[in-house]
Amino acid sequence: MALPSNSSDWAWLPKNILDTVLDNLVPMVDCIRFSAVCKHWQSVASDSFQHVRKNHKHDCPHQQQLPFLLVPTIDNSSAYRCLYDVTRKSLREFQLKIPYNIRSGGYSHGWLILVDDSFQVTLFNPFSRKFIHLPPLKRLLFEKRYRDEFDEMLALPHLERFEYEKRMREECDEEDVEYEEPESDGELELEENIEEEVEEEEEQEEEIESKVEEDEEFRAPRLHQSDYSIVRGVLSADPDVNGDFVLMVIYGLKRRLTYIKSGDKNWTYIDKDACDFFKTTYAMYIDLYPKRGLWHMADIICTNGIFYVLDKLGVLLSIDVSGNLNKIKCITLPDIDNLNRGINCKPYLVESSNGDILRVIRIAENEEGDYGNATALRFMIYKLVHSDCLEIPTWIKVDYLGDVSLFLGDNHSISVKPSDFKGCQPNSIYFCDDYFDLYYLHGGPTDIGVCDLNDGSITRHYLLKHSQRLMPPPIWIIPKFVFNDISP
């Protein structure tokens, strides 16, 4: 085959040759340069990426991209964000326009998951700038109403209070509660406990107000409670590619589960009544907390159409929502050791780039005398192992990931092959500060870094400026291709 006689002939190289070239390009910037050569090359790139995404070829090199941190701009714009490249330790030149100046409840398959003050959920693609508006989460409205109307409810006689709360629950699709005859001592103790919780919340609010008054920089970027009502959200597929997607989220104070399918008008809530294993798996905790529900979920992944959910006790659930009924299975039992690790242990669930399901525990500590910002000390990693000699799958501790890097935070947990990306550390965990229960009151997220699992060392790779501490916190995102026509 004769070589092209001039540069313009390169534009018309056969498609199979261009496909081969494209298949060997991994970094996003190289793929963008390829598509910018001419309309023909852009068309080849567009066809290739659409084919890869529609067929879920996650092992294709240019489908595995390196995450960037979505961070505030240098001038602290409320309408734009920047991308921080951890391999170059610098900000990228371009900015993304983000119409919501709030925390994201997750990032999955190219979409940010956002919640407004009315608890309506919106999916937003920062690269295509598309929106998908979903119904509000009524149970979050119940939590807000319960908190706002608590004093009014507390003043009612016991039966009237129960009827009041029951009506509120029905209006908000909340779990029903059974009426219990009051026992004078027990009721008094319950009311005292509730009053203590309310007083504690009021003290925290007063602490915020005092900081707002003392610090001018706290006023404008004040956080909204609704930002934090979704802890984690994961999509089953990219809505741009597959219109039949499912979004599952962990929501509310009790960290419960709900999901919605594309086209649904209401959310489907997953409660303990849907789990025939609930009483056996959580038996010891039901004895201690008889009203305990399917609570304290920590992370979600979705693989091959099945959602896997990890709770804070190390219990792994599989949830198949493909039919009309939820098929929920309990895969692992509670990890008793996990009970002694305290509040500063944050569990994550990751599907590694080689297909393993990993449970990662981030262990942090507070500075002396500081009940706010927690600093990561170390990470513990467990791999889900199936074996003929084991009755049920179990978590086995691992100390080495090899050619794998994990990216953890508020996002759908990400695993990449670092040998494909210059400057990306292998056998490492890149993490963001998602201890928002703590940093909400204490000056914003500060614990952003990378842990080298070879020696356990932790270094900081990005620091927010003081003026950015209560702006929307950083989150890992993966750039997505958006093809528009280009001039010939």
What's this model, at a glance?
This protein has helices at 15-23, 28-35, 39-54, 138-148, 150-154, 158-171, 184-214, 278-281, 283-288, 436-439, and strands spanning 68-72, 80-85, 90-97, 107-108, 111-115, 120-125, 130-136, 230-235, 246-251, 256-261, 268-270, 297-303, 306-311, 316-320, 327-330, 345-351, 357-366, 374-385, 394-398, 405-408, 414-416, 428-431, 449-452, 457-460, 475-477. The protein is of the alpha+beta class.
State the share of residues found in helices, binned by percent.
10-25%
Q: Report the average pLDDT across residues.
A: 79
Number of strands: 25
Structural class: alpha+beta
Bulk shape = globular
Tell me what portion of residues adopts beta-strand conformation. Answer: 25-35%
Q: Specify the number of helices.
A: 10
| First-last Cα distance | 26 Å
Which residues form runs of ≥5 with pLDDT under 50? Answer: 1-5, 55-62, 185-191, 211-224, 483-488
Q: Report the C-alpha radius of gyration, rounded.
A: 24 Å
In this structure, how is the largest beta sheet organized? 5 strands, mixed
The strand line-up of the biggest sheet is: 21-20-22-23-24
